[in-house]
Design brief:
Alpha-Beta Plaits, four-stranded antiparallel β-sheet, Ribosomal Protein S5, domain 2, 2 domains, alpha+beta, binds alpha-D-galactopyranose, seven-stranded mixed β-sheet
Length: 377
């Protein structure tokens, strides 16, 4: 059943009435610009087809009632004015946080999604933005401004889930357009939609290693970067460059983190140029360099993800490239390649990669050329 239908039917089943509407928000895959958003850098994510649907309707005064259709119909019922964070955080935390920030009650929500969790494809940002859109629709408020919605969703991630993330995921989900990469300046929140060439495809392959974003590694990387900026006397690593880092007396680990950030921001700029000139070979080289840097300097990859990226890069050859995507420590690998190579590369990786526990390999094909290649099969 299509996602929006699933939300609608799930709402009717859970609350005994038809919903008044269904809101949607996509997930995102980050093409390049990893671990630079919280350093005020530039990033290049893209919304994906998978996402979260939230059917909404009325509920009693001072109450929000929510049902998680994918978690065995688990329910939460709360008064947003008095709701408090849960320990450990769960799906309810995001709904509570968004409802409290919106200052809204009297709403019933049925939530369902198609983004694999722990895959680095922003299932939680997608859920927050979809809930925010459902709440705005229920309040008959104007369509929320994407940047405001994204900032609310980030605040919920910080305060209700304890993850000190940047703004990339929420902005990609709230402001991204299908088939286009979103160039986002994380300092100013300025955006530019950059359509991918029609003959490029984006392939997202799950490594099968589930990532735990809140496990502490993420927050630790962020504080390494903040400490580097402090020691360099700069507002953020965005303001540094390799020469400044080389000249400073930094701890070797902090130096590696800082070097990754400044070089990754330069790679994002070069990647935009490669899209605009349709130069997929250069784009692929940038993806490979980003992966190596995340593995060796930022140290957020794991061996299975390295292996998957290597297999993809070997199969793709000069027709693009692949790298880990998202926060790291497992999750997915993104490949950008010529659309006419998708079937061949997919077959190669299906043959050569074995996901942990023998799980079936999950591969998504995105982008204008990707959709066309998907239809050809
Ligand atoms: C997670 C965070 C983002 C970003 C990425 C790494 O997805 O939510 O803010 O920092 O990791 O680029």
């Amino acid at each position: 059943m299509p996602l929006l239908e699933r939300a609608r039917a799930g709402f009717a089943n859970a609350f005994g009435q038809e919903p008044l509407g269904v809101a949607f928000a996509p997930g995102r895959v980050n093409l390049i610009g990893e671990h630079v958003d919280y350093n005020d850098g530039l990033v290049l994510p893209m919304p994906i087809t998978a996402g979260t649907a939230v059917a909404w309707g009325p509920a009693g005064a001072d109450t929000v009632e929510a049902v998680a259709l994918d978690f065995n119909q688990a329910r939460d019922r709360f008064n947003p004015a008095t709701a408090a964070p849960l320990k450990p955080p769960g799906w309810e935390s995001y709904v509570r946080g968004m409802a409290q920030l919106a200052g809204q009650s009297g709403v019933a929500l049925a939530i369902t999604g198609s983004i694999p969790q722990g895959s680095g494809l922003s299932s939680s940002a997608s859920m927050c933005v979809a809930v925010g859109r459902a709440l705005a629709a229920a309040a008959q408020a104007a369509i929320p401004d994407p940047a405001e919605l994204a900032q609310a969703a980030r605040q919920v991630e910080h305060d209700w889930a304890g993850v000190h993330c940047g703004i990339m995921d929420q902005m990609a989900v709230a402001a991204g357009q299908p088939g286009a990469a979103l160039l986002l300046d994380c300092r100013t929140l300025q955006t530019r939609q950059i359509a991918l060439p029609a003959d490029w495809a984006v392939m997202v392959v799950q490594s099968g290693v589930v990532r735990e974003l809140a496990s502490g590694h993420y927050n630790a990387r962020r504080s390494d970067c903040e400490s580097a900026a402090r020691q360099l006397g700069l507002p953020a690593l965005r303001d540094a460059d390799p020469a400044i880092i080389a000249a400073a007396d930094l701890d070797p680990v902090v130096r590696r983190r800082a070097l990754h950030v400044v070089q990754e921001i330069e790679r994002v700029k070069a990647a935009v140029g490669a899209i605009e000139t349709g130069d997929i070979e250069s784009f692929g080289r940038l993806l490979r360099a980003s992966h190596a840097s995340l593995r060796d300097l930022f140290e957020v990859s794991v061996p299975q993800v390295d292996q998957l990226a290597e297999l993809l890069n070997a199969a793709i050859c000069r027709d693009g490239g692949a790298r880990m995507t998202g926060g790291g420590f497992g999750g997915a690998v993104v490949a950008v390649l010529r659309a006419d190579q998708v079937a061949r590369v997919k077959a190669a990786v299906e043959q050569d990669y074995s996901a942990p526990g023998g799980a079936r390999l999950s591969i998504m094909i995105e982008g204008a050329g990707g959709q066309a290649a998907g239809k050809l099969k």
